[in-house]
C-alpha cells in the first residue's frame, strides 16, 4: 500500500507513451509528452515525502518541526517552468513542419524526403 | 509496419520496461519513509544560515544555485529558439498583412471576456510581482512570479487590445529585459568571485530578522532577476505565437 | 486522540500535524490515495483524447488535479508552479499553436 504512488507513476508513464506511439497528430504527441513529464514530478515528490511532516516553510512554525525534503521540491519546481518553455520550442517546430509539408500526421511526415 | 502491429510491439516492449521500472521502484524505502539525512539537515540549518524562512527557495538559489543557473539558461535558450524559428517563418510571409486584423479580439470573444480580462490585468501583475519578490519568506519565488507576470500580459491580448499588447511589449525591449535577467543571475555569481569568494556565494548582508523581505542576502536579488527573465521569456513566446495567428487571419482576409 | 495516532506516537514517529485522519506511518491519508487515483484517471483521459483542442481542455483540468495532489504532498511551491504553468500557460501556448495550424487546413 505504501507503493501506490510508484504504481501511479509507472501507469502515467505507460499511458503517456501509449498515446505518443499511437498518435496521428503532432500536437497530440506533444501533449502526451507533457503527461509523461508530469509523472516524473509525482515521482520526485513521492520520494521526498515524510509521513506526518509539514511543508518546509518556517515562517510561522518553530524551526525544529519535522518537514518534508525541500531538495526534491526545488528540483520539481524549476522543472515545471522550464519544461513549459521547451514545449513551446517543440510547438514552434510543429508549426514549421506544418508550413513546410502541409501536414501534421507523423506517419506522412516520415515518408517525405527533403 | 501496420498500426496494429506497431501497437502490439509497443505493448510488449512497455510491459517489459514497466516490469523493470516497478522492480526498481519497489526497492525504494516506500512512500513516507524518507531515510536520507540531507533533507533533515537542510531543514535544521537553513534558517539559521541564510535568514530565509522559505527553505525551498533557499535551496534553489543558495545551496543548489549552480543548478538553477543552468535551468534558467535552458529556459532562455528555449525562448530564443522559439523566437528564431517563428520570426524566420514570419519573414518569409511578410507580404499581404492587413492592418485591419489588429485591434480585434480573438474571434468569439464576447464583451464579458474582454471586461473580465481587463479588470484582472492589474491584480495579476501585482500578484506576480509579489510572488517574485517574496521568495525567501513564503511559498513563492522567481519562477512562479515570472510566469504569473507574463500571464498578465496575455490577459491584455485576450481583452482584444492587440495593439496595446504589441506597444507595451515590443520585441527589442522584451529581448533585452530577458537578457538582463539571465545575465544578472550569472553576474551576481561573478560578483562573488570578484570579491574573493566562491561562485554564487551569499555576500550581501543577511539582515536581522529571518523572513523579512530585505533579509537573506543574494537570494532575494537572484529571485528578482529570475522573475524578470522568466516573465520576459514567456511574453516573448506568447508574442511570437500571437503574431503567427495574426498572420493567419490576415491571409484568410485576403484570400 | 484516536487509537491510530496514539500508536503512531508510541512508535516514536514524529508527527507534526494531527488530524482525525492521521494514520500510522507507512500508510497514507485517504486524501492522497483518492488524489493519486484521480491523477491516474486524468492522465489516461488526456492521453486517449484524440482531438487536440479537447485534449488541451483536458490538460488544463489535469494540471489542476496535479496541483491539488502536490498540495497534498506538502509542496505548496510546486503547487503554485504547476497551477500557473499547467492550467494556464501551457493551454494558452497550445491553443495559439492550434489556431495557427488549423486555419491553414481549411
What global shape of chain C is seen?
elongated
Task: List low-confidence stretches of chain B.
Answer: 95-101
| Element pattern of chain C in H and E | HHHH
Order of helices and strands of chain B: HHHHHHHHH
How many beta-strand elements of chain B?
Answer: 0
**Radius of gyration of chain B in whole Å, from Cα?**
24 Å
Strand content of chain C: under 5%
**Class derived from helix and strand content of chain B:** mainly alpha
The largest interface is: A-B, 54 and 64 residues
Query: Level of helix content of chain B?
Result: over 70%
The outline of chain B comes out as globular
Distance N terminus to C terminus of chain C? 66 Å
| Multimeric state | heterotrimer
Gap between N and C termini of chain B: 40 Å
Instruction: Outline the biggest β-sheet of chain C.
Output: none
The overall average pLDDT of chain C, rounded, is 81
Q: What's the helix count of chain C?
A: 4
How large a portion of the residues of chain B is in β-strands, by DSSP E? under 5%
Overall average residue pLDDT of chain B: 81
Rg of chain C (CA only): 19 Å
Classification by helices and strands of chain C: mainly alpha
Task: Describe the structure using short key phrases.
heterotrimer, A: 114 residues, mainly alpha, 4 helices, elongated, C: 106 residues, 74% helix
What's this, in brief?
Chain B has 255 residues and is mainly alpha-helical.
Amino acid at each position: 500500500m505504501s507503493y501506490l504512488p510508484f504504481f501511479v507513476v509507472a501507469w502515467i508513464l505507460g499511458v503517456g507513451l501509449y498515446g505518443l506511439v499511437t498518435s496521428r497528430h503532432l500536437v497530440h504527441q506533444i501533449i502526451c509528452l507533457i503527461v509523461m513529464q508530469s509523472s516524473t514530478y509525482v515521482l520526485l515528490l513521492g520520494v521526498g515525502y515524510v509521513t506526518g511532516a509539514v511543508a518546509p516553510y518556517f515562517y510561522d512554525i518553530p524551526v525544529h518541526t519535522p518537514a518534508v525534503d525541500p531538495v526534491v521540491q526545488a528540483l520539481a519546481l524549476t522543472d515545471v517552468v522550464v519544461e513549459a518553455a521547451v514545449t513551446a520550442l517543440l510547438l514552434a517546430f510543429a508549426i514549421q513542419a506544418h508550413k513546410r509539408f502541409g501536414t501534421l500526421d507523423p506517419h506522412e511526415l516520415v515518408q517525405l524526403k527533403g | 509496419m501496420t498500426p496494429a502491429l506497431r501497437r502490439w510491439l509497443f505493448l510488449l516492449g512497455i510491459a517489459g520496461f514497466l516490469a523493470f521500472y516497478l522492480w526498481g521502484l519497489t526497492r525504494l524505502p516506500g512512500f513516507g519513509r524518507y531515510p536520507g539525512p540531507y533533507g533533515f539537515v537542510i531543514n535544521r540549518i537553513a534558517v539559521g544560515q541564510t535568514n530565509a524562512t522559505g527553505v525551498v527557495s533557499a535551496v534553489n538559489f543558495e545551496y543548489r544555485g549552480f543548478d538553477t543557473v543552468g535551468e534558467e539558461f535552458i529556459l532562455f535558450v528555449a525562448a530564443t529558439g522559439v523566437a528564431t524559428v517563428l520570426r524566420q517563418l514570419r519573414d518569409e510571409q511578410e507580404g499581404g498583412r492587413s492592418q485591419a486584423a489588429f485591434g480585434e479580439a480573438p474571434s468569439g470573444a464576447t464583451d464579458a471576456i474582454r471586461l473580465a480580462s481587463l479588470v484582472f490585468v492589474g491584480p495579476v501583475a501585482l500578484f506576480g510581482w509579489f510572488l517574485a519578490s517574496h521568495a525567501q519568506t513564503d511559498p513563492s519565488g522567481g519562477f512562479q512570479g515570472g510566469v504569473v507576470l507574463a500571464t498578465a500580459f496575455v490577459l491584455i491580448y485576450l481583452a482584444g487590445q492587440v495593439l496595446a499588447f504589441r506597444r507595451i511589449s515590443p520585441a527589442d525591449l522584451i529581448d533585452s529585459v530577458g537578457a538582463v535577467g539571465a545575465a544578472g543571475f550569472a553576474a551576481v555569481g561573478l560578483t562573488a568571485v570578484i570579491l574573493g569568494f566562491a561562485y554564487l556565494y551569499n555576500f550581501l548582508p543577511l539582515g536581522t530578522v529571518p523572513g523579512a523581505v530585505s533579509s537573506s542576502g543574494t537570494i532575494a536579488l537572484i529571485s528578482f532577476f529570475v522573475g524578470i527573465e522568466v516573465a520576459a521569456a514567456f511574453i516573448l513566446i506568447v508574442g511570437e505565437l500571437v503574431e503567427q495567428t495574426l498572420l493567419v487571419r490576415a491571409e484568410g482576409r485576403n484570400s | 486522540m484516536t487509537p491510530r495516532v496514539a500508536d503512531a506516537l508510541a512508535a516514536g514517529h514524529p508527527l507534526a500535524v494531527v488530524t482525525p485522519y492521521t494514520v500510522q506511518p507507512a500508510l497514507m491519508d485517504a486524501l492522497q490515495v483518492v488524489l493519486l487515483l484521480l491523477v491516474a484517471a486524468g492522465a489516461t483521459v488526456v492521453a486517449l483524447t484524440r482531438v487536440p483542442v479537447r485534449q488541451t481542455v483536458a490538460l488544463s483540468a489535469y494540471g489542476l488535479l496535479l496541483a491539488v495532489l502536490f498540495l497534498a504532498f506538502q509542496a505548496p511551491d510546486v503547487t503554485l508552479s504547476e497551477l500557473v504553468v499547467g492550467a494556464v500557460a501551457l493551454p494558452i501556448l497550445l491553443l495559439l499553436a492550434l489556431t495557427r495550424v488549423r486555419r491553414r487546413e481549411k
